[in-house]
Amino acid sequence: MIAIAFVLVLHLQTTLIDDLDASYDQVLWIIDGYMLVFSVLLITTGRLGDTAST
Predict the structure, then answer these.
(1) Which of 3, 27, 28, 49 has its CA 20 to 30 A from that of 9?
(2) Residue 54 lies in a domain
(3) Structural domain tally of the chain?
(4) How far apart (Å, rounded) are the C-alpha atoms in residues 28 and 10?
(5) Cα–Cα distance, 51 to 32 (Å, whole number)
(6) Per-residue confidence band for 50, with pLDDT thresholds at 50, 70 and 90
(7) Which domain holds residue 21?
(8) pLDDT digits over 1-45, tens only?
(9) Is residue 52 a part of any domain in this protein?
């Protein structure tokens, strides 16, 4: 699931560069931040689901 989201964000890379008028390094920081937040929320909600279902 994380890999699919990462691939989608990578395809938006040129759009982010054009629309935000950002450099490639800035877009990489945006992508890294997105993936970090997405991964943490995925792990946290998975853990909460496991504890709630027991």
Answers:
(1) 49
(2) no
(3) 1
(4) 9
(5) 29
(6) very high
(7) 2-47
(8) 667 877 888 888 888 888 989 899 998 898 899 889 988 999 999
(9) no
User: What's the pLDDT score for residue 12?
Assistant: 85
Q: In the structure encoding, which two tokens stand for residue 34, read together? A: 């997105």
Count of residues in the chain: 54
| Token pair for 21 | 């008028």
Supply the pLDDT for residue 35: 87
Residue 10 lies in a domain: yes
Token representation of residue 10: 């990578």
The reply to whether 20 falls in a domain is: yes
CA dist., res. 24 & res. 4, Å (int): 21
- Separation of first and last alpha carbons in the chain: 24
